[in-house]
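Here is the promised in-class demo. Please do not try to memorize the tokens; focus on the logic of going from shape to residues.
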């Protein structure tokens, strides 16, 4: 097995805690050869996203907004709606927001992959 592939099963785990763990592994901060200006050659494979757990009443109260740029086109979805239709994107958004907002963010996210169930 290749050492640069990390497999994480997130079934039954809490969304935010898993996103934090994935963000740390994508940046390579848990490795002794960590450098802040380099993207490590690590692929993170995530499985079991459909059965991820969310605490509290976030499923009904947490809202995600989108705007197309046209007047009156602001739409919103709850976390529960997004988890039913696109659970991979929910986790990817959570990880993206935990990464630093610089030029390396997109390169980190390219190393995040999901295993279809």
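The designed amino acids, position by position:
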């Amino acid at each position: 097995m290749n050492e640069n592939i990390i497999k994480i099963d997130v079934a039954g785990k809490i969304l935010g805690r898993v996103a934090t763990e994935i963000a740390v592994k994508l940046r390579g901060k848990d490795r002794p050869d960590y450098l802040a200006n380099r993207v490590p050659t690590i692929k993170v494979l995530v499985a079991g996203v459909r059965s991820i757990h969310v605490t509290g009443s976030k499923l009904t109260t947490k809202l995600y907004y989108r705007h197309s740029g046209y007047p009156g086109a602001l739409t919103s979805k709850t976390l529960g709606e997004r988890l039913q239709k696109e659970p991979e994107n929910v986790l990817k958004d959570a990880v993206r927001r935990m990464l630093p907002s610089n030029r390396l963010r997109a390169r980190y996210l390219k190393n995040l992959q999901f295993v279809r169930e």
